[in-house]
Amino acid sequence: MNERNTGACGCGAVRFTTSGPLRGVVYCHCTQCRRQSGHFYAATNVDDDCIDVEGEENITWYRASQTARRGFCRFCGSALFWKHDELDSVSVVAGAFDSPSGLHGDCHIFVADKGNYYEITDDLPQFSKSSPDVKVADE
Length: 139
Known about the structure:
The chain is mainly beta. The protein is built from 1 helix and 10 strands; from the N terminus they run βββαβββββββ.
């Protein structure tokens, strides 16, 4: 996996650079992620002190639950971040990274809530709710 990665929203008003290791991509099938993204959410994670964001003033934060918020570009609407209040890290959507990112799939969470219009056909671990390693918001 690359030690330094870059990415952006769809219009370029928000750009970011990560340094250091990124978590494998977690595919979240919860209802909230599906409704926001139109399918399931695919995101990695990076420590707060390992991400630099340009155009931070162009991010709108939506309070998605009592303990987490979602960040998106206020111009183009691109989903970019998911931030739990109790963690010193931020989830970054995998699709926002420039290629090559070196990212790889890690697991599927909230598969009990997945849409009825698709099947999960890879061999990654699947969890009914969250995996033991992924802290999620209280719904």
